[in-house]
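Async update (no meeting this week)

Hi team, since we skipped the sync, here's where things stand on the single-chain job. The sequence we agreed to prioritize is pasted below, unchanged from the tracker. I ran it this morning and attached the output directly underneath so nobody has to dig for it. Comments welcome in thread, and please keep replies under the output.
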Amino acid sequence: MADPKGFLTTPRREWPRRPIGERVRDWDEVYVPGALLPIIGPQADRCMDCGVPFCHEACPLGNLIPDWNDLVARDDWRAAAERLHATNNFPEFTGRLCPAPCEAGCVLAINQPAVTIKNVECAIADRAWEEGFAGPAPPDRLSGRTVAVIGSGPTGLAAAQQLTRAGHTVAVYERDDRIGGLMRYGIPSFKMEKRHLERRIEQMRAEGTKFRTSTTVGRDVDAAELRARYDAVVISTGATAWRELAVPGRELIGVHQAMEYLPLANRVCEGDLETSPLSAAGRDVVIVGGGDTGSDCLGTAVREGAASVTQLDIYDRPGDARDEDTEPWPTYPKLYRLSPAHEEAGVLRTAPEAAEDSDARLFAASTLRLTGDTDGRVRALHLVGVDAERRPRPDTERVLPAGLVLLALGFSGPDLKDGLVAGLGLELEPRGTIARDAGFATNVPGVFAAGDAARGQSLIVWAIAEGRAVAAAVDRHLTDGTTRLPAPIGPYDRPMTA
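Output:
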């Protein structure tokens, strides 16, 4: 480490956010531009370079965190970028979107605030682009083998880049009109501006990866015919089959899935639409679901000018500190966290009847039914407080005004309606994900599955790790059984738990 006493003398400082009143008026990223680099060197110096770095284990990519912390502290940005890109294809994505399980596993976090690993990662990635350290890396020669990657989310892009760099000819098929999957139309721009995505896509094009947009395999292209045209196929379509809310009134006008709402807002930012047909402007919005997708809806509704926004979480309010008995270090604890969207909603007082410390969330709340007007439009959501077993608590029913209800209840597996799974004859797991063996291979020879489509809904850092691992499996299949590509995880690996 550059400073052996850095973790003792330097307090944790995070990338400052722009003032709330300023950032809710635009769709730019919430952080103060240029404010990270001046503080990141001393923050990297807080890394203890501990003998057993559990941040490695907490990160499925196996990021060389102490290495690049030390290099940043020494102002060696080129070497830091090399170490970072050795394990992560898209660190500017994870540096903005990942919840940083590595920080929960930081040894310093046993009794102090963890190293700002996520901020250091983001600083290295951004500096790499500014200094020209992230140029294309095309292969020296081509193998003559071809691969189709279906889906252009983080798993598909990571797999495609790894396989292209290994010398295979790769084509990525995407059903939307632009590349990026959930990062394109699911993640709001205030969390990650799309210029970061565009930059990586251009890098991949320069390396030789081909992209086919507006193409749904199974509908626009016969799945079996596609398989016959390529030496291998990687399915990385994500888990897009959303979970439903089975309550009376679900059919009312104004009740929509989060992934019907968020893509339209993103298309406004892309310039495709002047306004979203599902805009929250002037409406009382209720979001059912307490996860990250619900938080994305919350920040979007605030920016669209909602009259009020309330987010319902069926779980109790988490504690402010780690429970060492149930979630000991180095596992990722369930804590009360304020995302930028929650911070905005709390300060702007968008929640009706908000408590003094409200951030627009109602915890331990379950939806009973939705009611509407004579035109069939939703007007109210009826809820009840629940205990830890999700049993209704007496005398806790209440009614929230609702002109727009957004369902953010998670996803169960790949969408079966497009014909891809049936067209290839793929076997599914009981929970609805694509079945695969220890080598990421499905029951169909030459067809591999990775990411949320096979793992189930997970984090972006696991998605990229899956993409890198499945690329190694495909490379091994296409060659003589060996590969030089890294495989950071296996298909059955899971996050650390107590």
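Quick observations from my side:
The radius of gyration is 23 Å.
The CA atoms of residues 233 and 469 lie 14 Å apart.
Reply here if anything looks off.
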